[in-house]
Each structure stands twice: as structure tokens, then as C-alpha cells.
Amino acid sequence: MKKVILFSLFILGLTMNTELKGEIKNIVESGKFTIEIERVIPSSMRAQSVTSEYTLTLENGTLSTHLPYIGKVDSAPYSASNSLSIIIEGQKVELTQIYNEKKEKYTITFKAKNDQTNETCKFSIDIFKNGNCNIDLNVLGRQYISYSGKVKQ
After folding, report:
1. CA distance 63 to 50
2. How many other β-carbons are positioned within 10 Å of the β-carbon of residue 51?
3. Are 131 and 147 contacting, i.e. CB atoms less than 8 angstroms apart?
4. pLDDT value at position 137?
């Protein structure tokens, strides 16, 4: 009896895993999704949960994002608002998308210009089969920073 219950739970888990994996595949391959940021992970500080709504949205190769920046800045960029945030609105980007079957994740990379400072931002996004995401961000003159969150359609 125990074996039957365990086997049933195993099959149920595999079915749910396959459905979620298919849902994430559809979201990513549609080219329209939003990542809701939950944590900011500066390279030389402790990770912090965010209290405001920060997102990264890709829609058919167009990027819109507002991300906080916490970390060391070697050369302060000029910005009318004196904000170090990464703000990009409606910018066309050239995406490279790769699926790693072994790790069961999508990796999307692209470059964009920060609207406020005109800095080039290099993004690398990993989207896992469970919907969790990691965003790695490199900007010349700033310390590397990453973000974690969930993908939504």
C-alpha cells in the first residue's frame, strides 16, 4: 500500500513538473513576459529583499525596466535626478536566447542604454523551469549586481 501511494505521489510530481516546465517554455518563447524582482544581490554586500515594485519587462524585443542599484560606483554618471537606478523605457534590444537542456533553463542576453545616464548595461537573464529568475547586470564603472525574482506573463 505504501509503495502504491509513493508511486502515485511520484507520478503526480512528474506531471506537475512537466506542466510547469511547458508553461515557462510558452511564456519565454512568446517573447512577452515580466520578471518581478524580489531580491537585490550586490556583489560586495548582503542580499536585500525589495519593498517596492521593481520589474523587467520584455515584449517582442522591447525592454522596459526600473531596477534599483546598490553598490560601488567608480565614476558617477551624470543624471538629472542623481539616481543610480537603472531605468529603461521602451528600448528595442537584440536578444540572444539559449535553452540549456541539462540545467533546464533559458538564458537570455542583451545590451541596452540606461535612459538617465546613457550607460551601456549588459544583461544576462536565467529563467528556470519553476519560474524563478536570476538577472545579472554589468555596467562599466559600477560593481556587478544581480537580482532574483519570478517570471510572469
Report:
1. 21
2. 6
3. no
4. 97
85-98 core/surface letters (b: 16 or more CB in 10 A; e: else): ebebeebebeeeee
Task: Identify the pLDDT of residue 124.
Answer: 98
Q: Three-class SS of residue 22?
A: helix
Query: d(Cα 61, Cα 104) in Å, to the nearest integer?
Result: 23
CA distance linking residue 97 with residue 22, whole number of Å:
17
Average pLDDT of adjacent 10-residue blocks, the chain of 153 residues? 45 46 87 95 92 94 94 69 83 95 95 89 96 95 94 91
pTM: 0.82
- Strand segments, DSSP code E, in the chain are 32-42, 48-49, 55-59, 62-67, 86-92, 96-100, 105-113, 120-128, 132-139, 145-152
